Amino acid sequence: MFDGTVAENIARFGELDPEKVIQAAQRAGMHELILRLPEGYDTPLGVGGSALSGGQKQRIGLARALYGDPALVVLDEPNSNLDEAGERALSETIGELTARGCTTILITHRTASLDAVQKIMILAEGTVRAYGPRTEILTAMRALAVPSPVAAASRAAPRKGLAALHRVPDKKDIHLDA
Fold first, then answer.
1. Rounded Cα–Cα distance for residues 50 and 44 (Å)
2. Where is the ABC transporter domain (predicted)?
3. What is the 3-state secondary structure (H, E, C) of the chain?
4. Same structural domain for residues 113 and 129?
5. Same domain, yes or no, for 81 and 8?
6. Claim to verify: residue 113 and residue 134 sit in the same structural domain
7. Is residue 171 part of a domain?
């Protein structure tokens, strides 16, 4: 959070449109909580301001990302401090963004937030290790996480899992509106 009010933080310290600020907060599941703060949207944050939990800060950051109805949203570890309600709000928000045609890039180590995405790309050491539909990638990940007794006994058998799904996205996978 930056020094300023809740509303200023959501509006990215640019032109503050109260309707857009409230809409972004509602979409991030923060509106009701903000209304309970000492001064609502005018509550100061940052040094000497109101103390928020890590999850509340992340959800205000999510509202900031949603401010102004963007075409592209990049969320880096958006759920690292979220409680169950915050996780639900994040999932609902990602689903809403997808339904509206917004391209959403989610960078995360936690698979719980992947239920709302359509495709997954796994990177390791700067290389694409897997790319494909969410269900295929998650199924392969689960298969690799719990080795079956047959796989453990037969080390000579070729490995499948993520290696079988490895495919770098091509132009038909990328949808950009002109």
1. 6
2. 6-79
3. CCCEEHHHHHCCCCCCCHHHHHHHHHHCCCHHHHHHCCCHHHCEECCCCCCCCHHHHHHHHHHHHHCCCCCEEEEECCCCCCCHHHHHHHHHHHHHHHHCCCEEEEECCCHHHHHHCCEEEEEECCEEEEEEEHHHHHHHHHHHHCCCHHHHHCCCCCCCCHHHHCCCCCHHHCCCCC
4. no
5. yes
6. no
7. no
Closest CA to 97 of 132, 70, 60, 78: 70
Give per-residue pLDDT as tens, 34-47: 999 999 999 998 77
For residue 176, being part of any structural domain is answered with: no
Average pLDDT for 112-122: 82
The answer to whether the beta carbons of residues 63 and 29 sit under 8 Å apart is: no
Q: Which of 1-5, 22-26, 36-40, 141-145 has the lowest mean pLDDT?
A: 141-145
Tokens of 39: 């001064």
Tokens, residue 76: 């880096």
Tokens (6 digits) for 15: 């032109």
pLDDT higher than threshold 70 for residue 134? yes
- Domain boundaries, position 137: 120-165
